[in-house]
Amino acid sequence: MSVLIYAESAEGKLKKVALELAAYAKKVAESLGTSVTAVTVNASDVSELAKYGVDKVLKVTNDKLATFNAKAYADVIKQAAQKEGSKVIVLSSSTDSSYAAPYVAVALNAGFATNVVALPESTSPFVVKRNSFSSKAFSHTELTTDVKVIALAKNSYGLVEVAGAGATEDFAPSLNDADFSLKVEGVEKISGKVTIADADIVVSGGRGLKGPENWGMLEDLAEVLGAALACSKPVSDLGWRSHEEHVGQTGKPVAANLYIAVGISGAIQHIAGINSSKVKVVINTDAEAPFFKVADYGIVGDAFQVVPQLVEKLKEFKAKNA
Fold this sequence. Notes:
Helices cover 26% and strands 25% of the residues. The chain has helices at residues 16-32, 70-84, 95-107, 216-225, 233-237, 268-274, 303-320, and strands spanning 3-6, 9-10, 13-14, 36-41, 56-60, 88-92, 111-116, 122-123, 126-132, 137-143, 148-152, 167-170, 201-205, 228-231, 258-262, 279-284, 297-300. Strand 15 (258-262), helix 6 (268-274) and strand 16 form a beta-alpha-beta unit. It is globular.
């Protein structure tokens, strides 16, 4: 009857979100008087999960699952849940898990709550707090089904170390050939950079930077902060930056601990896609830019002057505290 999590990994290494899920699930399991089981797919070292509360790891190793496939991965999670008798299944709100979670819920005839931002307010009845209306409001949702699927919003719980037994068990679920009817021809991967999906800090640029040749100062800022680089939709549409960096409601959603917007006016679609970020900083010459209405901190100034000075100050601070 353990709480089950799907612990995501990439190239054999666990993602940070897997550890956050583990810590969250441990607290849920304690309230239910049960344990935490994680299912992993082609992850090599899973020992770190024990530090964050996982009592048992079901390790799936199969070359057919080398590339993410929503139906196949959902089937693996479903079979793991059935094996463990899990009534609560926790996934992340990452792109991959967002595709797989609905399949899991349908397969298990489960209630499904997305964008969960806190521990259950109660477990009987089972009520969770969720982001709603593009993170402008919260809803309190009761799941009345026997089995419940939760999608935890990124950075909503954090990394909380709590010991788990960490036992491992090889798990070989049956795979349905029909799930692999859709063929993936290739996968583009970004190497040597902090990705938007995994970043705690995101530095984003807009048309106020005037052209792709001026992105160097944002790259410097991102490097000193250990941040991911992003951009607004007009920037990617103009071809200044890759569409992989486009964030917002029509691009990649961002729920960073710190989001820095440079030269972005703040169209409603952009704000809706980054509104889950905890701290938002805006640098813009236009004091009337809509972004300032939702920013936690704002600087009215020329980015070409502000950003280089900010980089130098951050470098000085890091040098003093090294």
